[in-house]
Amino acid sequence: MFFRISISKEDRPFLIRVFIGFLIGMISAGVPLYQKYEERKVQKDNEIFEVQMRKLTKVQTSINGLSEFIRQQKEQLRQSQQTVELLKKRGMCLGL
Question: Hey, what's the torsion of the CAs at 37, 40, 46, 51, to 10 degrees?
Answer without folding.
Answer: -130
